[in-house]
Structures are given as structure tokens and as C-alpha cells.
Amino acid sequence: MQSLATMPLFTSPVAENPAMHEVMRRYHSRHKAPGQCGSANVQYVAAPLPVVWSLVRRFDRPQDYKRFLKGCRLRSGDGRVGSVREVTLVSGLPAGTSTERLDALDDERHVISFSVVGGDHRLINYQSTTSLHEGGGGEGTVVVESKEAAEKGYSLGENIDTSSISSTQRDE
């Protein structure tokens, strides 16, 4: 299977997509309080959504599509919500490991979210949410990754709207 990190990107924007805008509003657009910051990255991948999702949804294999990760092992759980992983970063970065908890995994809406819960880095109160959307007439995928962080002493609060995710997707 080809790594998502090596798949070619689209060079032109994808047409407006109302479903994508709803997911952006629900999962990627949050009010920032004092001490909080956030960013979003959008990438167009020249591969069908089911292929890209099969890689991105694997909480135990983020190195398959993130070049700065060397490896990963599950510390607890089986890859479902509540699982905890330890990722090893490639050398040259200002950290060696990150410990992360899977907060949401929605196979229907193609959304995955995790929080950093430890590691030898400066990330405190950090959460990442990735959503996938059909693009390029069904031949490509729009990948949206948003990240939020809060300074030490501040909280991110409840960042993800999990009301529409079934209890089996939220439970450990």
C-alpha cells in the first residue's frame, strides 16, 4: 500500500462542498479564549477518500502518512476511542516522543481526533482533529487538520462536538 506521505497533491482547489463546510464548522472552528491558539492545514491528495481514510483512521500507524514520525506503539487500548499511543519522532526535532489519546473516531464522517497527554516536548493542552472530504470529482481527497493548544495553566475545555457520534464510537 502506498504511503499517504508520498501520494501526489492536487494543484488546484476543490469546488465548494457544503458537507465539508459543515464538518469545518463543527470540528475545526472553535472560539479561542485567552491563552489558546490554533491552526488548520488543508491538503489535496490525489487518491480516493476510502484509500486515504484507510490510512488516516489507523491510530496505531500515524507514521504511514506523517513524515516526521519514526514509529508508534499502542500503550493501551486496541485502536478505538480511549486508546493511548506513544509515537517516536524522527531525529532532529526538539522532542523524541509524544503520548497521545484517541478522543474521536467517526468512520461515517471521516473524522479522527487525539489529545497529547505526555511526552518529552513543550506541547501542553494540545489537540489535533483531522477530517477527510471527497474532492476532485471523487478521485481525490481533501484532508483538513486543525490543531489547538493552550498555554500552561489554561484549558482547551470540551473541544469536539461528540453529540452526533454514536456511543460505541466514543466508548473505550
Automatic annotation (TrEMBL):
Q: Where is the composition biased (Polar residues)?
A: 160-172
Question: Could you state a single Gene Ontology molecular function term?
Answer: signaling receptor activity
For this chain, the family text in UniProt reads:
Belongs to the PYR/PYL/RCAR abscisic acid intracellular receptor family.
Question: What InterPro entries does this protein's entry cite?
Answer: Plant_def-hormone_signal (IPR050279), Polyketide_cyclase/dehydratase (IPR019587), START-like_dom_sf (IPR023393)
Keyword set, alphabetical order: Abscisic acid signaling pathway, Cytoplasm, Nucleus, Protein phosphatase inhibitor, Receptor
- Chain segments annotated as coiled-coil in the UniProt record: none
Where is it localised? Cytoplasm; Nucleus
Kindly provide the name given to this protein in its UniProt entry: Uncharacterized protein
Spans annotated as Disordered: 153-172
Family annotation (Pfam families) = Polyketide_cyc2
Specify the superkingdom: Eukaryota
Instruction: Please name the GO terms of the biological process aspect recorded for this protein, alphabetically.
Output: abscisic acid-activated signaling pathway
Q: Which GO terms describe its cellular component?
A: cytoplasm; nucleus
